[in-house]
Amino acid sequence: MIDIPKTYDPKQAEQNHYERWEAAGFFAPEINKDPNAPVFSIVMPPPNVTGSLHMGHALQHTMMDVLTRYKRMSGFRTLWLPGMDHAGISTQLMVTRQLKKEGLTRHDLGREKFEERVWNWKQEYGGQILNQIRREGASVDWSREQFTMNENLSRAVRECFVRLYDEGLIYRGNRIVNWCPNDQTVLSDLEVLREPQKGKLYYLRYPFKDGTGSITVATTRPETMLGDTAVAVNPDDERYQSLIGKILVLPIMNREIPIVADDFVESEFGTGAVKVTPAHDPNDYEIGERHNLEQVAVIDQYARMTEAAGPEFAGLDRYQARELVVEKLEALELLEKVVDYEFAISKCERCKTVLEPLISTQWFCRMEPLRDLALAKLREDGKPQFVPAVPYEKVYSDWLENLRDWTISRQLWWGHQIPAWYKNDSEVIVARSREEAVEKAGTDQLTQEQDVLDTWFSSALWPFSTLGWPEKTEDLATFYPTSVLITARDIIFLWVSRMVMTGLKFMSREPFADVYVTGTVLDKHGQRMSKTKGNGIDPLEVFDKYGVDATRLTLASVGSTDTRWSERQVESYRNFANKIWNAARFCLLNSGGAETVTEPFAGDAASLPLHDRWILSRLNKTARDVERQLGQYDFHGVVQTLYHFFWDDFCDWYIELSKATITSETDSPERNIARARLLSVLEQSLRLLHPFMPYLTEELWQRLPVQHSRLLHQAYSGVEPTIMLASYPHCDDALVDDRAEADMDSVIELISRVRNIRAEMSIKPGEQVTVLIRGLRQVLPAFETNSAQIERLTRGKVVIQDGQEVPRASARAVLSGGVEVAVPLEGLIDFDVERARLSKEKEKLEKESGKLATQLGNADFVARAPVEKVDELRARMTEIARQQTALDQNLEALS
RNA sequence: GCCCGCUUGGCUCAGCGGUAGAGCACUCGCUUCACACGCGAGGGGUCAGAAGUUCGAAUCUUCUAGCGGGCACCA
Predict the structure, then answer these.
(1) Which nucleotide lies at the shortest CA–C1' distance from A4?
(2) DSSP 8-state secondary structure symbol assigned to residue A666
(3) Which helix (H) or strand (E) holds A329?
């Protein structure tokens, strides 16, 4: 006999299959031999090379894998392309830290050696996550794996840069930017973290030059006053109107600065007068532009005071300078007051250092023309379609509308070096290569721009650069645009929108039809999981404890809403996996002879036993629901559908109803057919489940005594059989049988009610009872033909009555359709208990009929509600009345 | 400050205009020949609060409260 353990061991199944799948090339689209196959493609959001698997990844990958496996089994030419991002700042930080341990800085090595070092680091530590992705069971095509720093992708980056530059969309300019004094690089607006900060608001008095008094300004950063070149007031502020144009003497510096009028100033805030430091504040910078103010840089790239701040301050750290400024102003009696104040401070997203706004020469990308492409696409074609549409479509379009130029240069060594060369240190030549630059410049006396590009610049090209762009490759023609992007909401701006813009610009097509935005897995207190909080759950540990498949079900059911992590949930899906295992175990233990039956459901469906017609109907409806729900990215819904079909319909009822025939000791054609049918339903269920539970389903499928090769989708015929490439079950409408379902519902109701009587009357489990059934002629056949099953599941002898008397000492139940059930319990029945039980039933019905009566008595309802609704309620009312009558008679019989 | 989301049984979540659902937890009974990670039978919610629209609202509208998130140039 077959030896199958009673408990499912996920580890074993996990070890058994992935390598084989990968080695056999099952993940690659080439496995599909149908030249007319529809195409399904996804590019994996490239995780950072510095990263390791976290819940967010596991969540997204599960959903991507579910869709990929589903489409692959449905015969699509399917590509899920994996890869990694070089993650400029993060990676450089990582390697810099490693160097620091050796007492070195990157400058000790020099740029070339440093880059080499990063590549070595990548070789050694980078990409751990790739093996973790394998563990998840992700069916990605490793033969197409990409890395943003690969030569082909770097080439795409240069091509993109040159084209945008030639069109005037990329330019070099001197502007105020977000500067990280720690990482020594500029950052884009999206890489800035805004954090609330408790601080102080300092009120400083600036005297008029003519000695007639002073004006008071409020600031959170007094040290910047050293670089002030004006004070601004609102032009409509009556308090200050007469002072506009007046000259002040900037304390400490003794610089003469004007009072200017600018709409930016809010009269209500502070004193209504603002000190203006164009070199160190983005707003002041703009005021400065409007009023042609001098920019005095008093803070340098290390956040230290410059010579321009004066000899006493030069070289001081910005916070030391703050103290000294305050001290001096106090001494001069120009510090009016200091109040506690909470405000938002800008920090570096990576290293959390407080940023310093600085004026600096950087490369920028003009976004308006690109933005317009994206907005037009959304408005005209509704692409990409966000799921859920609310709120993400609006979040996306609102952001696009307010888009500002993108700072694309970074003062890093790790990244794509900007393809610009300087001739005589001034003239700029932008070219795809040094050779091209030399040709354009007419000299080889060129130095390349030292800056690299923002990591997101290369990510923005990911959906087409990974497929070969700018070459016109077959992959590009086949797989672009991709089908769907699955991502977390925090990179809609950083990444999603930029892919759309570059995709439309360079490919003239949106990069993906749909964007599915996943929910977030929160900790049990509802907090986001984060490294700094240390409240993250490691998916790999969950895999170890509960198995990959159970974890995948848990994650899939998160769907698009934020969900608190609950280990109990995983546990229940672990139990589900075990349930599947044991159902299969039962089928296998009772499979002898089944293999002789090739078409277990062949012939006229109407002639099948009720439970067979019923399970086929349920199975096909399930396939239909799954298809619909997956089409809507309703991952939570699909998991529920599959869970309940398998556990409730298949295990609780179909297996139980089949047992009588299947477990028969003697070999017979009936037994073999029943066994084959059971196996067939199990086998199809495994296929339905496979996208969610790849390991368990493959493990079991391989063990089934079925003709595996015949189950493969035709696009894969001839390959070594695997459930991965078996045909995904689709609904066959001919097998949906509402009549069978209704009949089966009656049988289930009957069995449940008898079981209820047994439990309530405390009938011993082993004790046989008699089940008397009477009712209208049309409902009885279902009970008649299934009496053997009913007897088995109720441990009762079924007697279909023809108007015979029911013994007084019976427990009774009234079923829908007016069916009455009685279980004679002479000597066992407690009449009081039974009367109470029936009275409770009656109360329930009375409550409902009361409600219905009110509703049906409402003339407005009858007049305005849809006819079908009214009819439905009337039918229900009739049904209740019938049951009430029967209950009354039963109660009477008991008295 | 502006915008958005969430608030359903003890817990985690579905449902989103027509008699309140699931899993876990809980109660009772079961070593019933696949499974105690199980089987059978139960108990438990005025769907955050208020007002409104509607014949009818957990479901639509408005407001309030609590929680969470995004955006923002208030020095």
Answers:
(1) B34
(2) S
(3) helix A318-331
Copy the structure tokens of residue A485: 């992007």
**What per-residue confidence (pLDDT) applies to A1?**
45
Torsion angle in degrees (nearest 10) through CA of A517, A522, A527, A528: -50
Q: Which of these, A512, A508, A515, A534, lies nearest to A523 by C-alpha position?
A: A534
Residue for token pair 């007492």 = A103
B28 C1' – A756 CA distance, angstroms? 12
C-alpha A374, offset from chain centre: 23
| Strand B close to A220 by CB, under 7 A | yes
Nearest-angstrom CA–CA distance, A455 and A92: 12
SS3 A886: helix
Q: Which nucleotides of B are covered by protein (CB under 7 A)?
A: 3-6, 11-15, 18-19, 22-24, 28-42, 54-56, 67-75
The tokens for A824 are 């004679």
DSSP string over A414-447: SS-B--EEEETTTEEEE-SSHHHHHHHHTSS-EE
What is the per-residue pLDDT for A647?
A: 97
Strand A83-84, strand A77-81: pairing = unpaired
Locate the DSSP E strands across A748-850.
769-774, 796-800, 810-814, 820-824
Say what the pLDDT of residue A2 is. Answer: 59
Segment A31-79, tens digit of pLDDT = 999 999 999 999 999 999 988 899 999 999 999 999 999 999 999 999 9
Per-residue confidence (pLDDT) for residue A825, from 0 to 100: 87
Position A525 scores a pLDDT of 86
- Please give the nucleotide, over all strands, whose C1' is closest to the CA of residue A221: B75
Who contacts A153 (Cβ-Cβ below 8 Å, separation ≥6)? A146, A147, A458, A461, A465, A466
Low-confidence residues in chain A, pLDDT < 70: 1-2
pLDDT value, residue A613: 95
Ramachandran angles phi, psi of A41, nearest 5°: -140, 145
Q: How far apart are CA A222 and CA A202, in angstroms?
A: 7
Measuring CA to CA, which residue among A143, A62, A34, A173 is closest to residue A718? A34
Q: What are phi and psi of A2, to 5 degrees?
A: -75, 135
The complex scores an ipTM of 0.96
Q: Which of residues 310-339 of A touch strand B (CB under 7 A)?
A: none
**Beta partners for residue A341, in sequence order:** A199
Tokens of residue A208, six digits: 């008029």
Which residues face A528 on adjacent strands? A522
The type of residue at A288 is G
In angstroms, the CA A355 to CA A562 distance is 31
Chain centroid to Cα A816, Å, comes to 44
pLDDT for A96-140, tens place per residue? 999 999 999 999 999 999 999 999 999 988 888 999 999 999 999
The C-alpha atoms of residue A650 and residue A618 are separated, in whole angstroms, by 9
What confidence score (pLDDT) does residue A596 get? 86
Q: Which residues contact A729 (CB under 8 A, 6 or more apart)?
A: A619, A620, A623, A684, A687, A688
Is the CB of A597 less than 7 A from some atom of nucleic acid strand B?
Answer: no
| Residue of least CA–C1' distance to B13 | A563
A12 in contact with nucleic chain B (CB within 7 A): no
Token pair, residue A24, equals 């056999």
